[in-house]
Structure prediction request, 464 residues.
Amino acid sequence: MDMPVTEDFEPLMKRLGEIELYHDGEDWVEAESVWKRPLRPQAFPYTTFDSVTQSTLFNYSSLTMNRTLTALYEQDFLYLPAASDTIIQDLKAAYTTPLRTLANQLIAPLEEKVLGNLQHQVNVGGGWNKELFKCFLAEKLEPRGEAVHDSLSLIQSASDPQLMLKLLLMQHAVDFLPESSHMARFAKGDYGDAQSAVFRVLLDEFGYGKHATKHSTLFKATLKSIGMLDNSHAYWNFYLTSSLLNNNYFHKLTRSPECFFEYVGAITYAENSFGPYCGSVRNLLLQHFPDVDARYYTEHVHIDDFHGSMTLNEILLPLAERYGPSVYPEFVRGIEMSCLLQQIMEDDLCAQITWMNKRPLYRQLAMDIKHRVLENIENIPVAHLNEPKGELSVPHVHDGDEFCIVDEGLLRFCHGPDCFSDLSPGECVVIAKNRLHGALVLSEFCKYRILSIGDYRHYATYSL
Ligand SMILES: [Fe+2]
Ligand SMILES: [Fe+2]
Ligand SMILES: [Fe+2]
Prediction:
């Protein structure tokens, strides 16, 4: 049965946008609240909320819906601040019955809009058995040469590898801060041997109840050791669409018991592919931050080798033994989706690294095309902005290239975390399609214009 998309989707989003937690914050990062999740609700009336397709994956609607989904899914994750004198009030503001009701109404249509088309892309045939499945998994896990981690080689060759490594850790933070909380949803119920095997993996993830060795504690130590914030979700504004999307897929599976077998496929793939990846990240971290606490990554090289074999040999294969070969297509579906999402994350991250790395080039490009763009201004949609000091444009993306020019005052344009260009009157920058960026007014007031040029190549004699 197809899920009917509720007609009142937009009014529901509007109501969600009225909640303080989802309003813009004051700063690029959130150092105070562990519950604040800016969604830029002021832009909801102009957002299409169209179903996401392969070609609109990184568009504004997709970013907004993926942010919203993660925020709503995490309504059943408990977050507490390190300290507070008003904890009871705080908690009762962050978690409420009306918000849970709203989340319940919005999650299903959002899931369909965000994941529906991608899931339809994955077609799995029948005719599986243990041998075929094992070959399939081995092939999926086969390292595909250098191409597998393009993002890591881009970081290595970037002009500021430390900055890019921080961007990478921010993407990891989406999932690693509440690590394995998705999985904890499947610790509940009564379903035989597999349940206890899931629980054993969880025990490891939770450091056998010793907080110092809980995986998320190790990850926080990594963040702290290189001067980053370690509260959830300090870097919310810098999570890329694809990082949220992948996380949302695991939320969806673990909130839907009917997807348990697909989840088993997906988690088996994740645990098996994660170890080697962590080894590469650890090496890169140690190379560029000699004092980094890289225990999280070191630990996962070995533990996920173990979890990889546990998920396969103690959960997946015994389930197939118990229920017969008809469960294999579900495992395969989970693996195919995980691979697809990993590729999408890789593409998105590579594009963001490139965009940040080419910061001076996008400014030069803007100066080079400025004359031609302004000459054609009659034919271009223009937003005229006049904002007071301290006004923050929470990081976001556009569906085409944009041209930003300052007319009065000083604007701090943000190409990514800690990656800024301060623009004075007459100065400009091209904003690449789908790339995360933001802005902050540094002067008393700032007048600037955003021109939706669509494709900068209409105005340029070269491309970046
Ligand atoms: Fe872990
Ligand atoms: Fe693991
Ligand atoms: Fe923008």
